[in-house]
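FORM 7B - TANDEM STRUCTURE REPORT

SECTION 1: FIRST PROTEIN
SEQUENCE AND TOKENS:
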Amino acid sequence: MATFHLTCGLPCAGKTTLAKQIERETGALRLTTDEWLTNIFGEGAPMEVANKVREELEATLLDLAMDVLARGVDVVLDFGVWSREERETFRERAEDVGARSELHFLDVPLEELVRRLRERNADLPPGTFRITEEQLREYATWFQTPDQDELSPREAPQPL
């Protein structure tokens, strides 16, 4: 049975690092939006340009994830999934294709995220976008912290 791994957290929390670890350990297909966007728009492209197609790309990658899960292959989705509604929708879709799901929450204090952001922006890694401290602080106000129920793995529904 396939597992749908969702990485959850703000920028600089370590989501992509964790997604790569899950990919190595499980053989999961890793889907990281920012890597796809930098492949399309090029390294150093302004995030504002990439954000114009982010929603459409994420919808396409989510459809791809569901197709792969339905074929019995694990997927790790490196999107951040900031809202409970988004997380629930993604997990329900995984259930619909017979996959179990796990939410991997990276709970990092805001001031540590700011410190990591400064380091990242000083030497921007490939496949990432420059964001400002002000943007990060704004994103933090939008983020909905998962509760204990969300952090529990969800088993796939049993076939009838």
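SECTION 2: SECOND PROTEIN
SEQUENCE AND TOKENS:
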Amino acid sequence: MFLYDELYSRSDANNPVRVGLIGAGKFGSMFLAQVPTTAGLEVSMIADLDPARAKRNCADVGWPDELISGTEFVDDAMLLITSGNVDVVVEATGNPVIGVVHARAAIRNGIHIVMVNVEADVLAGAQLAHEANAAGVVYSMAYGDQPALTCELVDWARSSGFTVVAAGKGTKFLPAYHASTPDTVWDHYGMTAEQAAAAGMNSQMFNSFLDGTKSALEMAAIANATGLAAPDDGLLFPPAGMDDLAHVLRPRAIGGQLDTNGMVEVVSSLERDGRPVFKDLRWGVYVVLEAPNDYTAACFRQYGMNTDETGRFSAMYKPFHLIGLELNISILAASLLGKPTGSTKAFNADVVATAKRHLKAGEILDGEGGHTVWGKLYPVRRSLQMGGLPIGLAQNVKLRTDITENAPVRWQDVEIDHSLEAVKIRRTLERDPARLHP
């Protein structure tokens, strides 16, 4: 994209790209760490529920005093969005309900939005992207997070003339993890609760990575951005290392584990008995591709590509992702080129709240990574058929009925505030999911 030359020109002209950050947590702090060494980029405002903590985070990641004093810190994101002092908003709260509100406000004010908040994107991204396009602003995934990096690999493969067989990421997963709660999460990570607390690690957030919810959300985001299909009954999480991707992630009819070509999937870094996978892809992303002809398949062999036994399926992967440290790429692509680093195009995949245990009427759901529900990936066709409650709306809502373990929670099973903007936009999307398809 040749962003650096454009950025250098902005720096030389003393016309920096102005960024407003909403949410100065871990992801936001990783982005902030890169700001002092990025000429031509300026964080003009930071909105956080605790501005004093946000200032401390800036100091902790290496901001000099003069940079901190030159930045405005507020506790109201709407002040940031309506300030007229930002070119790009980074939404990094992780709260899907408020994230939808922030995104729509940025769009109304003609500001590009980088959506770190994958929860909000899966909840209503198709509508948000549609509104952004109509307003002439960019609605973008966050480069550095696995969905944007996976979409980049899919784009590379398709632009090079390959058929995309599968795409996704790696993670640490065993089937028992679906029942994990914030009380048990650190046992699975191999540390004590005290060690985690000393490191400032949030147990519910980290549990969402472990119990499969975050994986489902990220694969839904990829499916909605690329048109790849979601599995019909949730992610399989097959164990597979870097050398095994092309063998495992191909259609079942020819010896793989996929229903068909063109699917999202997450590979586990653990064998089902808990042994580590050889050359695991726990921190990375991948795309499995198919050679379109014999000549291309021969080139795979000649240039050392890892293939399946047929020689026609191969994989390209990136073994690591740097999360917020890479976020500048999205910000600069939006502001300098007017392009997203991945963006929702359609409502193809969804993530439904699913009971971790037998739940009783009157219980309060505690959302992503909590004690009550995990998020299961479905094609939209299935989630709408069952009337499934999106995981992004399964926070602080009361159950009307009992739910058996591993059963989906449905809209009709909960008491929910239908006046919330996020609920309204989601229900509108559900009534006509094909309306926004290109």
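SECTION 3: OBSERVATIONS ON SECOND PROTEIN
The longest strand covers residues 163-171.
Residues 349-436 form a domain with the Type Iii Antifreeze Protein Isoform Hplc 12 fold (CATH 3.90.1210.10).

SECTION 4: SIGNATURE
Preparer initials: ____
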